[in-house]
Amino acid sequence: MVLQSTARALLGRLAAEQAEARVPSLVAALVRGGETVWFGARGRVGEAAPTALTRYRLGSITKSMVAVLVMRLREEGELDMLDPLDKHLPGTPVGDLTIAQLLSHTGGLTAEPPGSWWERTPGAPAAGLLGDLGPEIARHRPGRRFHYSNLGYGLLGELVARKRGVGWARAVREEILEPLGMGAVTERAEPPCARGFAVHPWADVLLPEPEHDAGAMAPAGQLWSGAADLARWAGFLAGDGSGVLRAATLAEMREPAAVEDGPSWERGYGLGLQLARHGGRMLAGHTGSMPGFLATVWTDPADGVGVLFMGNTTSGIRGRLTHDLLDILDEHEPPLPAEWVPAPADEDLLALTGPWYWGPAAYALRLLPGRGLSLTPLGGLGRASRFVPQADGTWLGLDGYYAGETLRVESHPGGVHISLNTFIFTREPYDSSAPIPGGVDPDGWR
């Protein structure tokens, strides 16, 4: 748990938000290392203060859970990110859109489904939704831009249901919620839960908001959760997959696929996860909004921290609340760096460490745990990448310019060299005994 002084500062920020934004009730929590280290609450649900078990509607945070189901299908070989929608959900007028485009909101679909405002009216089953779709739901050229689409996640929810043979909500519960210990998450409002309200803009009075089964659009925003369970979700997003997804798959979901606000972006989207930059952090998570409710969860996997809030108001809670809570935690209790401990290394790898040269440019090769390698330019100018070992004795690029490329250590008459995507790295600048592409001037340096 956080120190008492930290908890007081966090509660002060939460109290200010609840009072200034006039929120009937507001809860928030911070997670570190998969554990909830602080929970705060203000306002009333009925006659009592909300607790960590009080359910609020998650809104579009639901989308991130549906996205995890889709990625599980990919891990099982049931689909590919480049598959067209028509391969798994035939008959729509946008069957050429890829699964990745739907996950990242880059398919150019309209934001909302046809018909009445779906968030405030009872929803139709999948057959009704699909039957209402026409060519007008395509608003932008696929891949051209980010355009948020609730409809896209309605389609993904139906895709999951058809692949699993059960409803999307049951699949979420059995494959994600129960393994993560989030058994109190529900598809509809169940006590203890907060009632959704709109707050009058010019008076301190409330208007109850409607809540219905959204039908085929439910995958876009229907689930309910308490702060305790949402904190477990934050721990999952900030962690290594917790047995629900492979760590590499979860990391892939957190990679930017589109940006929302231009070249110097602060907001973006991955595969089912919203992304944000704040104070040197790259945050991954999702916001949520439904009539009567607002919610947000952000995580930073770099140091295993997460933050969330939930409130029962249609509008008004400022998005910077989560950022401010993270800043308070960093100011009062900055994370300690992990202790350095020695690690064993094989002699053949030790012999490879040290300086290497790409032409005249100097690089350093360092060992990583598990026979991994790190190739970084000396002086900061150049391309850096990490590599993971493969069964055939090569290394595969993990990130940077050489992501997905193969690194090989090969012999030549004068020793060994590194072959990396047609480039040759040698122990001396332009070693003439190595197979340098284009050869080396026979007169050498002068």
From TrEMBL:
Domain DUF7586 as annotated: residue spans: 346-427
UniProt keyword list: Hydrolase
Domain Beta-lactamase-related: 16-323
Mitochondrion as UniProt keyword: no
Keyword hit for Hydrolase: yes
Gene Ontology MF annotations: hydrolase activity
Pfam families hit by this protein: Beta-lactamase, DUF7586
Annotated protein name in UniProt: Serine hydrolase
Organism the protein comes from: Acrocarpospora corrugata
Species lineage: Bacteria, Bacillati, Actinomycetota, Actinomycetes, Streptosporangiales
